[in-house]
Amino acid sequence: RVRCWEYRQLPSIVRVQHPTRPDKARRLGYKAKQGFSVFRVRVRRGNRKRPNSKGIVYGKPTNQGITQLKFKRNLRSVAEERIGRRAGNLRVLNSYWVNQDATYKYFEVILVDPSHNAIRNDPRINWIAGATQKHRELRGLTSAGKHS
Prior knowledge:
By secondary structure, the protein is an alpha+beta fold. Helix content is 24%, strand content 22%. It contains five helices and four strands; from the N terminus they run H-E-H-E-H-E-E-H-H. A four-stranded antiparallel beta sheet has the order 1-2-4-3. It starts with a helix and ends with a helix.
């Protein structure tokens, strides 16, 4: 609970020095070496509200719902997308859940610097430096994107 309170006081996207869950991060491909970075992202929980002025939908009654609509993608993929837009020079590798409260869910996203020589020369991870891996999170190619 104290950790969750601390997360709430910080900005929505924060770089963390070390993963909060190192075991999970390593299972998802994180290595404690140059070129890897971890960011904590905060996403608001809950359903998607339809952005209609005064809640008025001009159409059939079947489309008149405003509040009980569910967003198609999961919140983890939304978190990946937000950090992917913020850090355009990095590639999103994977992400995992770290915390949640009534209002927010917190995810840590593993990012890789494709221009770093430590990444380019490592045969296990240099696939992410390829041109086809640009903005994987926006095209649903990460694990969270495939799940949603």
